């Protein structure tokens, strides 16, 4: 069954104490205020994963999960500063983001590298959140569907069909990330529907129907409900608004 998911990407924010406080607040508010029909994923920095895993505890089996922001393409070895999929799995990570636009842009991550990272995540039994989305120049030139198509084809379409039950796609137009400029519900829906049609064409329609496709890019309580009401938008990957418990939980409630 296609899942509703709201994931909070904290990026490089919060000290450990701040992160633990934020996670505790979110967990309590989700417990008290939501109907638990939405899978909530907390995606703190690597240093906070182990303690926040403890805070989430047994709620994971129900509706609150732990995510990591990236993982190495390598299995193990002399790769100073990298964190492997096996390491993430060993501290209780359920979901891993691969292909966030900030990794693509600031760390020159290309399609081939992202394909390796995706494979590592899936080999270790975790769920993949694969990000795609076009920069402003591509949106303005009008060829954004082709751009997103290449991102998916080059990094994911070699994967076997049975792995797709562990894959979530996040469409995040780069021009909307952290800019306060949100895609309109119609703009987002157009790309989400296109992504689903590509998966249907490459695999099959039933499989494509089950894949959760999240929207990301300046999503906030004021615009979340409209976005989530679209037929092919199954939740959100939230950056800035996930750092405030009130706004993050209001976005989760808008997804119920
Ligand atoms: C993101 O970086 O994944 C994101 C969606 O950020 P923001 O919500 O701050 O635009």
TrEMBL record:
Binding-site list for substrate: 9-11, 178, 218, 239-240
Keywords: Cytoplasm, Gluconeogenesis, Glycolysis, Isomerase
Top EC class for this record: isomerase
Its biological purpose: Involved in the gluconeogenesis. Catalyzes stereospecifically the conversion of dihydroxyacetone phosphate (DHAP) to D-glyceraldehyde-3-phosphate (G3P).
Subunit structure and binding partners: Homodimer.
Family that this chain belongs to: Belongs to the triosephosphate isomerase family.
Listed name of the protein: Triosephosphate isomerase
Species of provenance: Thermonema lapsum
Lineage start: Bacteria, Pseudomonadati, Bacteroidota, Cytophagia, Cytophagales
Gene encoding the protein: tpiA
């Amino acid at each position: 069954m296609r899942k509703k998911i709201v994931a909070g990407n904290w990026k490089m924010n919060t000290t450990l104490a701040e992160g633990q406080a934020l996670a505790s607040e979110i967990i309590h508010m989700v417990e008290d205020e939501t109907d638990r029909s939405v899978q909530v994923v907390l995606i703190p920095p690597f240093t906070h994963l182990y303690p926040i895993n403890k805070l989430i505890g047994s709620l994971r089996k129900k509706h609150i999960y732990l995510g990591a922001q990236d993982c190495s393409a390598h299995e193990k070895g002399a790769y100073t500063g990298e964190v492997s999929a096996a390491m993430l799995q060993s501290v209780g990570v359920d979901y891993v983001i691969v292909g966030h636009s900030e990794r693509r842009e600031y760390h020159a991550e290309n399609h081939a590298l992202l394909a390796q990272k995706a494979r590592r995540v899936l080999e270790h039994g975790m769920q993949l959140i694969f990000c795609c989305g076009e920069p402003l120049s591509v949106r303005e030139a009008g060829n954004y569907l082709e751009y997103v198509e290449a991102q998916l084809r080059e990094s994911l379409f070699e994967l076997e069909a049975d792995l797709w039950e562990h894959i979530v796609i996040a469409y995040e137009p780069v021009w909307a990330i952290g800019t306060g400029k949100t895609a309109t519900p119609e703009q987002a829906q157009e790309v989400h529907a296109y992504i689903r049609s590509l998966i249907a064409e490459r695999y099959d329609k039933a499989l494509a129907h089950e894949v959760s496709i999240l929207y990301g890019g300046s999503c906030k309580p004021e615009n979340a409900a409209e976005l989530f009401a679209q037929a092919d938008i199954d939740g959100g990957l939230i950056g800035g608004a996930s750092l405030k418990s009130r706004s993050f939980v209001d976005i989760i409630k808008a997804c119920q």
